[in-house]
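Section 3.1: Structural characterization of target chains.
Under the original work plan, the team committed to producing a structural model for every single-chain target entering the pipeline before any wet-lab resources were allocated. The record below documents one such target. The sequence was received from the expression subgroup and is listed exactly as submitted; it comprises 143 residues.
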Amino acid sequence: MRRLVTAPYKDDEGMGCGGLLATFPDKCTAVVLAVVLAEGSPTRRREFARAMDVLGVTRTRELDLPDGAAGADVLALARLPDEICAELEPEELHLPFPSLHQDHIAAYEAGMRTARLATSPGHFPRGTGRRRRWSCPTWRSAT
């Protein structure tokens, strides 16, 4: 089963779905929407790479949206998970809990939009045209 873990920030994927990622590293892709653009960004990138290495995850995407403004362009954000899902065709989508932080809310809402559209026949052109059944568990992330 192909799984897609979507996280608003580096470390959210490990805190929220670390067990899942470690159990099925060859069947998971971790997608991080926003990256803190502050001075510590290179450190965070190294920490993320190390965490994915420890968990055994080899497929990741970093979308580098601005910290605190991932949902500033709602239409652009809504397209990103859709495009990634069209390419990877995951069978399971894991989204962050829509906590009080705007980037967590934006990541959750964009993922839910993709999940709803993906159940439409023929939504993804490469797919079989069959109606998709997705599991969309949400995890509670630390805020």
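The first strand starts at residue 3 and ends at 7.
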